[in-house]
Design brief:
Blueprint: H1 6-29, H2 36-43, H3 47-53, H4 57-76, H5 85-98, H6 112-121, H7 123-149, H8 159-178, H9 185-196
Helix pairs in contact: 1-2, 1-4, 4-7, 5-7, 5-9, 6-7, 7-8
């Protein structure tokens, strides 16, 4: 792989800075209040630089959510084609929620309700968010398949169905965390592990 040329690296750094600034500005001030001028000022660039990378503000918001979700999935979903991938994925997600800390740095205070509000406002973002969740389901499906092949994950439920259930569970948990509704995360994780585990046959 060739080295990234200085001009290309500079363009990527500008784009990254605008996305990071937008993430913080939108989280702090909200989708309706955060202005494009404020985002550019926080990033240290002009509107001219902004329009080199994004058609409009909505495209920037799509980039923000895309970046955050992609980093989140990369940090949480185990994709080593290992029999333990599904168990490791659940453990990593539970650990992130238990610590009440972002799964990755650079979230700028962005929370799940910011994503939902942005999706309600932008059809383009809603489509991209749905596509990212489908990608997550595909990755979790692969992890479930690996566990099923090794006899660690139950086989009476299709791997895709298990993945869909798990992704839907994360959405519900994210809402509860945002609303600060108390729940037994560790107990739920243990119960989930038991539900996912392959059933052992009882000796006669």
């Amino acid at each position: 792989m060739g080295k990234v040329r200085p001009r290309e690296a500079s363009k990527q750094e500008t784009r990254d800075a605008l996305i990071a600034a937008a993430t913080t500005e939108l989280a702090e001030k909200g989708l309706e209040t955060a202005s494009l001028d404020a985002i550019c000022a926080r990033a240290g660039f002009t509107r001219g630089a902004f329009y080199v990378h994004f058609r409009d503000r909505d495209e920037l918001v799509v980039a923000v959510v895309d970046r955050l979700l992609t980093k989140f999935f990369d940090a949480v979903i185990a994709t080593n084609d290992s029999p333990e991938d599904l168990e490791r994925t659940v453990k990593q997600y539970v650990g992130m929620v238990a610590s009440r800390a972002p799964a990755v740095r650079g979230t700028g205070g962005w929370r799940y309700h910011h994503t939902l509000a942005a999706c309600a406002r932008s059809p383009a973002l809603r489509d991209r968010y749905a596509a990212l969740q489908q990608e997550a389901m595909a990755r979790v499906t692969k992890a479930a398949h690996a566990g099923q092949r090794a006899g660690r994950v139950r086989k009476d439920v299709p791997a895709r169905t298990l993945a869909e259930i798990l992704v839907m569970l994360t959405m519900g948990i994210n809402v509860m965390v945002d609303l600060e509704i108390p729940f037994d995360l560790e107990g739920g994780a243990r119960a989930l592990g038991a539900l996912l585990a392959a059933k052992t046959r009882k000796k006669a």
